[in-house]
Amino acid sequence: MPAVSNISKNAHYAKFATTSRLIACLVSESLVKAVYIPCNEPGIQGLCLLLRPQRQAITGLEDLLAVVPLSGVPILSDTPLLVQGVKCGHVILVDGWDMMPHIYSPTTLADNVTFPPVVNAESTTGAVAKTLASVLLVPVGVQQLVDGFDAVQLWTQFASDFGVNEKLSQLIAQELDSSMLNQAHTYNHPKILPSLESSTVEWEQVILEGHATHPMHKARKSFAPMAPLHPENTNLETPQVRLLAIPKDHIQLRGDFETLARPLVDVMLNKHLPAEDAGTLRAKWCDHVLVPVHELQLANIQQLFPKAHIFPDTIHVTVQSLTSIRSVAVPDVFPGMSLKLCLGIKVSSALRTITPYTTYFGPGFSSGVVPHLTYDPKVLTIERELASAVYIHDDTDIAKHCSCVLREAVEYDVDNEDTIVPCAALVEKIQRPDTDITLVKHVWNLDTDDKRVTFLDRYIDLALQSFLPPALVNGVAFEAHGQNTLARFDKKTGVLKGFVIRDFGGVKVHRPTLIKTAGVDIDVLPDSCVVADTPDEVFKLLYHTLIHSHLQRLIRVLDLHYDGRGWAMVRKHLTRLVPQEHPMWKRFMEDDKVPGKCLVRMKIEELYRDYIYSPVPNVIQYRPSTVL
After folding, report:
1. Which of 141, 251, 287, 397 has the most crowded CB, counting CB atoms within 10 A?
2. Where do the TM regions start and end (predicted)?
3. How far is the CA of 321 from the CAs of 54, 170, 420, in angstroms?
């Protein structure tokens, strides 16, 4: 059964979930300096002190943006920072899992700000104040620290100090607020815990917190003409798919879209119309393409595409949304397939539409390139994008609002006998915020150190076997983070058998390497972001998605990060699989720093398809910290 919910507690943890991610980004992107101070108080490993932007030293509380007690030691630079003449650790990477659920603001920043009651704060606040006083060499009372600093409050202060445009700052604050609102709703409505017998859809929908480091991890931000979305009255899990008719000379098709979509369209027509009327309707619209569309997208369709005919709401099918929300499945009537639909809302920081670049690339890559890639199909299953449709419009930012991709989905094949789980679900908590027990520990009964080590070692081995060969040999990196990657387990034993990869919108391909090794090239539209100018761009994407965003999460939740054992396993398997003369070896196995994706800097610069990177610690090389 779901865990018992407590609304007040959940609101506190919802704010912490979003704010901790914002802090992690501000630190890793070097937007603020962060100091680590060991703490001798029970239950607290140390403090992370965030300096206000432009401040280079700490002379008093007025120099601090926030204070966060830590349960684990973050990753520190070799170069310390000085606080009142004393050498302290310079934090260069701090993770949400390092933090305790208390984020303090000095009262100097909390004027005219309302803070709600905080859960179990008294003893923690006293310990934090005592440690701060010993370092700052000035008295610090508990009344000078306000617990419950949330993401909007912290962002507003940071943006003011940093000089972010006020209008942009307000927009970002709205997305952070949406993230906290939806996080609280998720905590308040826990799911039944899944098992090895659960369907993939059930696993898709137990995502509790989502992206581990993105501050807008739970944002669901709509824009006019779409109505505002509130979690209490918006159905994102079992929405309706409606039907459009688009003139054939106004739509670009890739693959045999009409034939592949026909079974689903027929179900929609025959379910809500007499059979003879369905045939008549098809005949009437024979010079149009019938395209499924997410019900929430209809407001945008009406405004942007006057030639698109929207069929009555009686013609629909109820579907189940996947982890990404815009991708949906109807296993009982559309087996072996899923649909990727455009949805004009911001989920995390991206508008979840589908660009013409993506609709054009996927089917061609699936048929022309995937069969020639170097990989072991016994370990990795690649779900091809079989067909797509997109409205023809000179402005791609408009065209992306009316598009659809039809994708293979082995997890919904009637012959599938495995338990197939989105990897992001494995590292989610067991439907409550105040625990470190995750679904992977619970479902696989990983209650001993030996069990966790055995599970992780096999997982790392098979994950690297799956995704390294296409990058090493062919210059192709899949976006192998936890949302796009699914793990295949034996339903009876729970033993990991391999992985499934889906979604080609974010792959990186170094064309000269692909042509040389596979004898084929990709077919892309001009300015497509899948093209890698150098092999290093391929390695950069693989590192960010597979190592930083995927394996790091599992290593942390299995309690194998701080002692370095999880990363030792990664190095062991990389040593076996990556030749030392290959350029990937230096990037993964020698470089202390790697390019890290700057989620907040990209927001400040208003970028999505173009990325900003800054140097971050190469976690593959992580060893336990020696605390100053």
Report:
1. 251
2. none
3. 44, 30, 16
Pairwise CA distance, residues 267 & 435, whole Å: 44
Q: 88 with 81: CB under 8 angstroms? A: yes
Count of the separate structural domains present in the chain: 3
DSSP lists the bridge partners of residue 602 as none
Q: Is residue 190 part of a domain?
A: no
Q: What is the CATH number of the domain that holds 536?
A: 1.10.510.40
**Contact (Cβ atoms closer than 8 angstroms) between residue 142 and residue 125:** yes
Could you read off the pLDDT of 495-521 as tens digits, one per residue? 999 999 999 999 999 999 999 999 999
Q: Which two tokens stand for residue 474?
A: 């062919």
Burial of 510 (0-12, 13-18, 19+ CB in 10 A): buried
Tracing tokens 């192709």 back to the chain, one arrives at 476
Q: Which of 340, 242, 244 is nearest to 289 (CA)?
A: 244
Per-residue pLDDT tens digits for 8-58:
899 999 999 999 999 999 999 999 999 999 998 888 999 999 999 988 888
- State how far the Cα of 382 lies from the Cα of 374, in Å rounded to an integer: 12
Residues 6+ apart with CB under 8 A from 221: 174, 175, 178, 229, 345, 346
Domain that holds residue 102: 7-179
Q: Please give the structure tokens belonging to residue 162.
A: 């940093």
Q: Does residue 199 fall inside a structural domain?
A: no
Question: Is residue 601 situated within a structural domain?
Answer: yes
Question: Residue 97: which of 392, 518, 427 has the closest Cα?
Answer: 427
Same-domain check for residues 33 and 71 = yes
CB 90 within 8 Å of CB 36: yes
- Collapsed DSSP state (helix, strand, coil) of residue 505: coil
| Angle between the N-to-C axes of helices 7-28 and 166-188, in degrees from 0 to 180, rounded to the nearest 10 | 140
Buried b (16+ CB within 10 A) or exposed e, 208-222: bbbbbbbbbbbbbbb
